[in-house]
Amino acid sequence: MSETKIGRREFLTSVSVVGAASASALAPDPSAAQAPSQAPAPQHAAEGYAYLKPAEQAFVEALVDHMIPKDELTGSGTEIGIATFIDRALAGGWGKGDRLYMQGPWLPGTANQGYQLPLTPAELYRFGIEGSDIYCRKTFGKDFARCTADQKETFLKDLAAGKITLAGGLRGRDFFTIFYDNVMEGLFADPIYGGNKDKAGWKMIGFPGVMANNAENIKKYSDGKKFNADPVSIADMS
Q1: Distance CA 125, CA 144 (A)
Q2: Contact by Cβ (8 Å): 88, 194
Q3: How sure is the predictor about 213, in pLDDT bands with cuts at 50, 70 and 90?
Q4: 51 phi and psi, to 5 degrees?
């Protein structure tokens, strides 16, 4: 494994410059502002985003709706608030890296070492979304949010497999790992954090919520019978 050190300033500069250059090269004619290659307007702007910009909102909404499609078990990712959960997390202390060690030196890490980048989570999302849209425009001729379901699936699988390096040298796998975790957190975290609206994720798996007194039901429902929980959230107890 390479022992090349990564400077935070150099990394940020590299991502910003290369991303901006690529975006400029691929930018549509201003007269074609509504061209199909551009991301659609976010669907849930009325909820109020605290961190994500409009193009980033469109990316995140398309991402969570693709990963959590509406079915008989839950609403779509946006309907149950996963995009809102991610935005609130990025706008808060976690997104700002308040609990992360951000002093370096920065060395390439192994798969089991966790987060090893000179970027706060909010910065990683900003550069990752920009890089993803640049890649999708090069590969599919349109931003991620406007790609077909098959194109989105191909992109996400290649991102997860480490086959894609985004603008500025950002490893696609690093971006995939963080947003995959956030989508799962938004599906199953307490609704007070913006996701899991109406406790949809908890109801889907029969989780009783913060009053985790489910032990007596484990044997009773271990034969595969669905347990219809009536979950209790933090807000229910206040």
Answers
A1: 14
A2: yes
A3: low
A4: -125, -50
The vertex-55 CA angle with 139 and 146, nearest 5°, equals 40
> Residue 55 and residue 62: Cα distance in Å, rounded?
11
The pLDDT tens digits of the residues spanning 40-69 come to 555 444 458 999 999 999 999 999 999 999
**Beta bridge pairs of residue 232:** 209
- CA gap 79, 81 in Å, rounded: 5
Give the residue from 182, 157, 185, 159 showing the smallest Cα distance to 172: 159
* Type of residue at 95: G
Please spell the DSSP secondary structure of 194-205, one letter per residue: S-SGGGHHHHHH
Residue appearing with tokens 């933090």: 234
Residues 28 and 37: their CA atoms lie apart, in Å, by 8
- Dihedrals phi, psi of 100, to nearest 5 degrees: -100, 145
Sole residue written with tokens 């410059």: 17
First and final CA of the chain: distance in angstroms?
51
Of 57-66, 147-156, 229-238, least confident by mean pLDDT is 229-238
pTM above 0.90, yes or no: no
Q: Which two tokens stand for residue 4?
A: 């090349």
Question: How far is the CA of 202 from the CAs of 68, 80, 206, 212, in angstroms?
Answer: 14, 12, 6, 11
Q: Are 70 and 60 in contact (CB under 8 A)?
A: no
What is the SS3 assignment for 10?
A: helix
Which stretches does DSSP call E strand in 96-136? none
Does residue 60 contact residue 51 with C-beta atoms inside 8 Å? Answer: no
Instruction: For residue 207, give the DSSP letter.
Output: -
